[in-house]
Amino acid sequence: MLTEQSAATVRATLPAVGAAIGEITERFYARLFAAHPELLRDLFNRGNQAAGTQKQALAGSIAAFATHLLERPEQRPDALLGRIAHKHASLGVAPEQYAVVHEHLFAAIAEVLGEAVTPGVAAAWDEVYWLMADALVAVEKRLYEESGGPGTRAWEVVERIEETAGVVSFRVRPADGGPVAGFRAGQYVSVGVTLPDGARQIRQYSLSGAPAAAERRFSVKRVHGGTAPDGEVSHHLHARVRPGDVLELSEPYGDLVLDAAPDTPVLLASAGIGVTPMIAMLAGLADAGHGGPVTVVHGDRSPADHALLADHEAYAGKLPGAAVHFFYERDAGPGHRTGLVDLAGIDVRPGTRAYLCGPLPFMRAVRARLIEKGVAPADIHYEVFGPDLWLAQG
Question: How sure is the predictor about 75, in pLDDT bands with cuts at 50, 70 and 90?
Fold first, then answer.
């Protein structure tokens, strides 16, 4: 909780800081990477940096955290903190790195705002930063304790599966032959690879196999950037990684996890590569003998583009009460629908817990329709692949 004096200062200066936060984060990253080029080479996502999305996410999360402190001082923004902490833990972020961020972030604030950053203003925003940082460190410490600590483990690729023209799945097992711990359906792992220029880049991929399996499976969409750079790691995995190769994987993390009582109605809605955590959730529901109604919704360009289609159908088929609704923009075929996902004609039971994954416009539209149908906002959970611009924007 902010002190009363700091709260008043932050409230008075939030509009000015908010208006300049984009320029502040731009200066921050420039300073940080000039002082620590190894962070850009071996930790930060170079694609997100080039596209500017990481800067947007950082700016939005700082502003969102400060706003939350002012509007709800008695309540910690666990959704914001939890999502960031899981991502940090998957990357192995250490507590001492928060001091490095603080140094360059506050130097950037002083550069951009100049004389407006009086000692009182600096002290108030310093308090905001360390409240956020200390909370994240505490959550990350707990996550490390639960997973056995930060770091990665070597996993051997035992199978490469060409799911579609643009999606490949990799089945992996521990290279040391040791046991495989379970994971919570919906979680992801960080995968680290060394690229041709020597950089060690890390990306997160949802686990798309059954949570109790003796091996792990993750699925990778080859990212074509369009106006932004192509995905470095996805292209590397598609072009170079074959059975017998060894990859570095983190322990599973992620706060989009299946959490429903045995009789709770569940809705799983996905689009495109957002199907991956839903496969693990369906497998988990099937393995648990879930007795409540399950509604499966997915949208894609065509059945040929629908990654893990056979698994999607097979796991849903193991749930007697499952209702499956697949929407395709073309070549829908019998039993499926043509067009974009539309919940208008789909029955949504009272008390439904919904899990969403896919492009932001898709998830915004589905969430709005679910709320119209009576689903409580607190019961709608989602996963964003990449920087979380939705959460940062409130």
Answer: confident
pLDDT tens readout for residues 308-365: 999 999 999 999 879 999 999 999 989 999 999 999 999 999 999 999 999 999 999 9
Q: How far apart are CA 354 and CA 377, in angstroms?
A: 9
CB 357, CB 278: distance < 8 Å: yes
- Supply the pTM of this predicted model: 0.92
pLDDT confidence tier of residue 149, bands split at 50, 70 and 90: confident
Q: What is the mean pLDDT of residues 70-99?
A: 90
Tokens representing 368? Answer: 């709005």
Contacts of residue 101, defined as CB under 8 A and 6 or more positions apart, other chains included, come to 28, 32, 133
With a cut of 80, say whether residue 51 has pLDDT above it. Answer: no
Cβ atoms 187, 284 nearer than 8 A: no
Contact 208, 279 (CB under 8 A): yes
Residues 281-317: tens digit of each pLDDT: 999 999 999 999 999 999 999 999 999 999 999 999 9
Residue 132: name the closest of 392, 377, 390, 380 by CA. Answer: 392
CA distances 163 to 3, 156, 216, 271, Å, are 54, 19, 16, 15
Report the alpha-carbon distance of residue 137 to residue 154 in Å, rounded: 26
pLDDT for 389: 46
Q: Which are the catalytic amino acids?
A: 98, 140
The 3-state secondary structure of the chain, one letter per residue: CCCHHHHHHHHHHHHHHHHHHHHHHHHHHHHHHHHCHHHHHHCCCHHHHHHCHHHHHHHHHHHHHHHHHHHCCCCCCHHHHHHHHHHHHHHCCCCCHHHHHHHHHHHHHHHHHHHHCCHHHHHHHHHHHHHHHHHHHHHHHHHHHHHCCCCCEEEEEEEEEECCCCEEEEEEEECCCCCCCCCCCCCEEEEEEECCCCCEEEEEEEECCCCCCCCEEEEEECCCCCCCCCCHHHHHHHHHCCCCCEEEECCCECCCCCCCCCCCCEEEEEEHHHHHHHHHHHHHHHHHCCCCCEEEEEEECCHHHCCCHHHHHHHHHCCCCEEEEEEECCCCCCCCEECCCCCCCCCCCCCCEEEEECCHHHHHHHHHHHHHCCCCHHHEEEECCCCCHHHHCC
pLDDT of amino acid 384: 79
